[in-house]
Every structure is written in structure tokens, then in C-alpha cells.
Amino acid sequence: MLLAGGGSDGRGDRVVDTVVVFSGGPPPGVNVLACLPVGAPIVAADRGAAHALSLGLRVELAVGDFDSIGAPALDALERSGARLQRHSPAKDATDLELALDAATALAPRRILVVGGASGRLDHRFGELLVLGAEAYAGVEVDAIFGRSKVHVIRGERRFEGRRRELISLFALHGAARGVISEGLAYPLRGELLAPGSSRGVSNVFEAERARVELESGVVIALRPGMRASLSALRNAPGSAPGGSGSS
Question: What stretch of H or E contains 125?
């Protein structure tokens, strides 16, 4: 089967660049449509399939125990021709993790997770942890939750943003070493970010582009969709050996 969202590999098979994964929980806003790559295949986690259908999108694969999608949406999903990968409610992974596994099996360059802004705190914490799991180390992983953006960093990532936009950096699943940032008001220069540390909280885009690089480990960048005050830039210690905009 040919999958959209990429080019041909010369053998008639479509190479997938980005797979979009719709998570369950609260629905994303309609404005998320502008952030989705045109023609990207969509994998949905349980009720995420209903969210995708409500936005007029075609779901290629839905994954989960389907305990929260609702019968009408499930019927519409089956009529649309989507493939369903059913799991028992008594399982050892969340529907999102199962959907990420299914998306990874398509061998994309990038996975983009889409979800709502609210929902249960424990679910959101678990989602952020699983995004940085070793199982997805070979894929570029991003997420959009409401107006917030999430990026998993291994090695190096470059970002486009707005001047004064807030961005926080956290180590996941162990220490991140040799962390370097460029284009942020509070620079990190080959430093260590330890799990549980607030060292990377409330940094700020100095311009429209930024770069984060690390020698080892995993860093998750959280962008809440807010802008810092002008004083945050005026008081940024540009000559300091690193820092945070958090008090």
C-alpha cells in the first residue's frame, strides 16, 4: 500500500516522512490543521480517531481497546475503511504508546503527536515520558497539545519560534550531558541537565531561530505558547555561564 506524506523510494513504495498520531483525551482545536503535513498518514489512539474524523481527516490505522471512542464514532471509523488494531483493556501500555509503536513500524523520519490542551495530569505526564522513550530513539518526535509544542532532543534539534517565546528544557530518563543552546536568552554552554532539575526552565527565544545540542542523553523541550516580558530579555545574563529565566 502506498502511504502519503513522503516521496517514492524508486520501487513504487511511498517513503513516509511524517506520521501524525492523534492521542485520546480532550480534542485538539481546529487550528491544529494548519500544523499537519499535507497527506501525512494518520494513526489514532482510541478516541483520537474520533478527533481526527471530526476534523475531516482520514485515519489509516486506529489502535487501542476502544473503550472511550463511542459506538457512533467507531462505526464511522469502520465505514471509512480504516484498519483497526484492537487490544484488550487489560494491557501493559497506554493507547498512545501502542499508537506510537504502530507509527514507528511505518519507518517515518518524524512522528507528530496531536492532542488537546487539558486532560488528566497523570495522563499528560505519562505522555511526555513515553515521547522520550528509547523505543523511539530512531525517529524525530514532536507533539502539539493545544497551543503548546513539545520536541524530543537527541543529538541536535533546530527550532523556529517567535522572539520572547518561552521554552523550557528538561532531561528525561537520565542526565543530559554537554548541553549547548544557541539563540536563547539564557545560554547553556556544554552543561549537564540532571533529571528533576529546574535549570532549564523558562528560557526565551532571542530571535526566530534556536538550536539545542547535547553530547548524550535525552532532553524534552516544552513550549507553552506564551511570551516572556521584555524585562526577561533585558535582564538575560548573556555573558553568564548558563542559566534559567525562572525565579
Answer: helix 121-131
**Mean pLDDT on 193-222:** 96
d(CA 68, CA 163) in angstroms, rounded, equals 40
Q: Which residue has the cell 480534542?
A: 27
| Alpha-carbon separation of residue 1 from 4, 26, 190, 229 (angstroms) | 10, 31, 45, 50
CATH of 153-247, one of 3.40.50.2300, 3.90.1150.10, 3.40.50.10240, 3.40.309.10: 3.40.50.10240
Q: Residue 98: which of 130, 68, 75 has the closest Cα?
A: 130
Rounded (5°) CA angle 226-129-199: 55
Contacts of 37 (CB under 8 A, 6+ apart): 5, 17, 18, 20, 112
Give the pLDDT confidence score for residue 119 in this predicted structure. 85
Could you give the residue range(s) of every CATH 3.40.50.10240 domain in the chain? 1-146, 153-247
Query: Which residue type occupies 89?
Result: P
Q: Are strands 83-86 and 61-64 parallel, antiparallel or unpaired?
A: parallel
CA distance 171 to 136: 16
From the CB of residue 2, how many other CB atoms can be counted at a distance below 10 Å? 10
Query: Could you tell me how far CA 81 lies from the centroid of its own chain?
Result: 27
Partner residues linked to 114 by β-bridges: 22, 144
Provide the whole-model pTM: 0.87
pLDDT over 90 (residue 73): no
Q: What three-state secondary structure class fits 85?
A: strand
